[in-house]
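Hey, can you fold this one?
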Amino acid sequence: MTSTDLGNTTLMTRTIVVTGSASGIGRATAELLEAQGDDVIRVDLHEGDITGDLGDLKTVARVAQDISDRTGGVLHGLVANAGVSAPTELSLRINYFGTVALIKALQPLLAKADSPRVSVTSSAATLQHNSPELVNLLLAGDVDGAITLGKELAERGPEIGYANYSSSKRAISRWIRQIAATDEFAGSGIGINAVGPGQVKTAMTQELFSSDEGRKMAAEAMPTPFNGPSEAQNIAAVHVFLLSPANSSMTGQIIFADGGYDVVARGDDIWESV
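Sure. Predicted structure:
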């Protein structure tokens, strides 16, 4: 990390990895981080400083080694954004298993940095229908069992198969809360949180939002009473804050940047089970 003196202000240049950086939220996050002076390592399937399929665990290990080589073994932040919304087991491979594997592989690099932070792209879909059995298999690290059940759900059609996506995001959110206060993360000074977007205008949703019928369908599935669907830059701004040293107290939180869908779905008493 280098520093630049501007009058009485010293700006520190951090090295941040952003996965899924070729488009959408990942691209917007990388651009915001670079605009504030951070050194961003972009990771994506085909386009990036480092490329690879983060749904393949062997590739994840290689990507982590490439990041270590490129950074000299010290990393200040990770935006684990890569993911898909497929109603198939692919969502399990990338959104959960690949994400967890990459975070674990980079933890030693993060632990060596000043004010290290991790921010994950989760989803407001965690509040929708999911498969508790599948979530438990994911959290148990049962790759074969989870993939088998995911394929079974997918074979029953996209509506049932959607549980692959919502369950993968529910599981990664719960995993974050499981590890956030541990010695490995909190004890090493690593803050880890997630952003839960609702409806977001990206290349993947462009067709959906291009017609009245599509917009109506989206609004019925996930209402966004506050300002409607978000732009990718709106979600990126939350990632950038969660990664900043100014975020000195928040860890294990899932921040729903969803236009109010969380409120619509859960109401006012989120402390019901406490």
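The mean pLDDT is 92. Let me know if you want another pass with a different chain boundary.
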